[in-house]
Design a protein that fits this description.
Elements lengths: L12 E5 L2 E6 L4 E5 L2 H18 L20
Antiparallel strand pairs: 1-2, 2-3
């Protein structure tokens, strides 16, 4: 059995709701929260690690993440 550890890099999208920071990982759709950005990201990391223990990613499932512009008319 192979017990090697791989390191993957994921994205954290963070926004504030009242007293809490909400952190979301769009690649695997995990979400967590914290009273600081650092706490929210640490909690998201833990939630994502636990999720991936139960639902491992297929080899080539890393999505492409990009940005785009939208015109907003006032």
């Amino acid at each position: 059995m192979d017990n090697s550890v791989n390191t993957l890099i994921f994205t954290a999208v963070i926004h504030k709701e009242e007293d809490l920071y909400i952190a979301e990982c769009p690649e695997v759709r995990t979400v967590s929260q914290g009273y600081t950005v650092e706490e929210a990201v640490a909690n998201l990391k833990e939630a994502t690690e636990l999720y991936l223990e139960e639902f491992p990613l297929p080899e080539a499932s890393q999505p492409l993440l990009t940005t785009f512009e939208v015109a907003v008319y006032a």
